[in-house]
Amino acid sequence: MADYPARVKIVEVGARDGLQNEVSVATEAKIALVNALKDAGLKHIEAGAFVSPKWVPQMADSAAVIQGFTRSDDVEISALTPNLKGAELALENQVDEFAIFTAASEAFTQKNINCTIEQSIERFRPVVDLAQKNNIKVRGYVSCVVGCPYQGAVQPEQVLAVCKQLLSLGCYEISLGDTIGVGTPKKVQQLLTLLLQHIPADKLAVHFHDTYGQALTNIHTALQMGIATVDSAVAGLGGCPYAKGASGNVATEDVVYLLQGLGIECGIDLERLAKAGWTICDALGKTPSSKVSLALKQTCQS
Asked: What is the pLDDT of residue 112?
């Protein structure tokens, strides 16, 4: 029997990483989504991104969404803060946690933010300094931990080097992102075997995209290896911009169903969660990509 964690923390990224890759929806729909996620029991919600509206118009109303959300002392709201200006805006809007991002692939970093990995991490120093002065936690995202759309395979040693840099910079947790969803259990096992020799399990999270339908089995592998933080998006929101028509983030409903089946606590009401997904999908004019959500919907309608 695998030695699973007794409890798993789910970081809900649907309102940011999910909606960022969907058509724009009304601010009111986003606020309703974040409130519904909170009511379903989610305690860690990534609600927006303080980035240039020119480049990411879907996130232009992040301040309004965070201000419109009904605050609760036991719910942490995070936002993407790629530079000092973004961090200052996040601070003004009482964000509980900053999120910064780089990649384990030099080719991906050059294509996306026009700099090296080293330079991208240096850019975050003022963000982390501001956070530390204001007692705000900083979470680091590492994209392309298994594969890159430009470079191909990414070696675990490269991922380890980037994770170490982010931890020494001041990140309390590193989210390992399989950005194009090419990971398989064997690759995930190889990656985590190396990382866990150098980094405690409680400083690592997994963030799998479901492009090739492997996200849940990859999460299961990570759970077996002691990882107890999982990123996911309600209804499987978000596409993969590097694989046209492919599904994006693993669906929170599917992750919760898996955890419940394994007897792992996560504190989430699955039915309320599914309803939150149905509502935002109606606003987007799309169907949830979550198998569990669709099955529950069928049950409710029959």
From this structure: 82
